[in-house]
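Re: that backbone. Tokens:
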């Protein structure tokens, strides 16, 4: 697909000092049309196409007459296999209606060619940023809608249709189930609102941490956690005595501790994530040296050494040990 967008930005027709020259070459008609279009948009001049077929392309100023005689005639030269400017009269003398307003030739398709690389690199780039880019480049304020449509054109050209990709999903999931025995898939659809994902990790015999389940949902909201946790319990970790470490986000905490939760003792036990504890510690006590002591304490492999660290922390600041004691332990 990319090859269709062979027009390179920053071509000579974009520089206002440059003019078309008789004898100038273009690789194909697409390039010819784009060059004429860009030239006129940049100069805020409206033009009309006088003739356009497989071997000729001519255009002239929309006010063509005694006031302005801008015109161009480009045709295909079989010998060199290129399009060549044969007749040219310019620059336009009618110059500049008023720059700043929209230009009728600056349509979504034209904009899509300009923003193609940006959207390809940053698919989530906002319309506002693109709009600014278009304004900087062409000197026109274009409507949200035009830019939005342009972005759609680019997205479809890169990813094809959303619908198409979506329809491919079951096939993809089926392949996963075929080649990763034990894979269990539950696809639930609803109107799209944004997205967030959950990932559950597993540590294998070689201490590698591997994701074992994930969900793409509309956000970290109660319903989403409820959906994820219930399927996780049912299909991925049905065994009792599972240890749960979470980031203690309000919505996950609420769901884990709900009355009917299967994530509480005796079914499962909740622990704190070291990173969570340490991050909270820094917010509360802002002490980097004691942070190191705390990290050593939480990574201890036996309980025997813990009192030593705990005592040290108490000696430094009693508030720390109170804070640790008040932390709800595994229920
Ligand atoms: Zn003119």
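Recovered sequence:
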């Amino acid at each position: 697909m990319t090859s269709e967008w062979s027009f390179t930005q920053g071509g000579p027709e974009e520089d206002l000092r440059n003019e078309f020259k008789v004898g100038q070459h273009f690789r194909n008609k697409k390039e010819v049309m784009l060059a004429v279009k860009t030239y006129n948009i940049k100069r805020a001049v409206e033009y009309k196409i006088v003739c356009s077929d497989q071997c000729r392309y001519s255009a002239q100023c929309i006010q063509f007459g005694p006031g302005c005689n801008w015109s161009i005639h480009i045709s295909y030269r079989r010998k060199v296999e290129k399009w060549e400017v044969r007749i040219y009269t310019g620059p336009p003398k009618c110059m500049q209606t008023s720059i700043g307003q929209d230009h009728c030739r600056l349509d979504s398709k034209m904009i899509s060619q300009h923003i193609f690389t940006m959207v390809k690199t940053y698919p989530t780039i906002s319309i506002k940023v693109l709009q600014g880019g278009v304004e900087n480049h062409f000197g026109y304020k274009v409507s949200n809608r035009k830019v939005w449509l342009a972005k759609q054109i680019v997205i479809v050209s890169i990813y094809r249709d959303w619908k198409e990709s979506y329809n491919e999903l079951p096939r993809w999931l089926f392949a996963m189930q075929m080649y990763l025995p034990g894979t269990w898939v539950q696809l639930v659809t609803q109107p799209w609102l944004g997205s967030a994902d959950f990932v559950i990790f597993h540590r294998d015999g070689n201490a590698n941490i591997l994701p074992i389940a994930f969900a793409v949902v509309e956000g970290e909201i109660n319903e989403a956690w409820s959906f994820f946790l219930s399927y996780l319990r049912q299909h991925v970790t049905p065994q009792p005595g599972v240890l749960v470490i979470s980031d203690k986000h309000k919505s996950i905490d609420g769901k884990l501790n709900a009355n009917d939760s299967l994530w509480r003792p005796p079914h499962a036990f909740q622990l704190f994530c070291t990173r969570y504890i340490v991050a909270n510690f820094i917010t509360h006590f802002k002490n980097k040296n004691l942070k190191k002591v705390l990290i050593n304490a939480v990574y201890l492999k036996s309980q025997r050494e813990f009192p030593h660290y705990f005592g040290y922390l108490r000696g430094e600041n009693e508030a720390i040990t109170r804070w640790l004691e008040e932390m709800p332990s595994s229920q």
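Residues 273-331 form one domain. The chain is about 40% helix and 15% strand.
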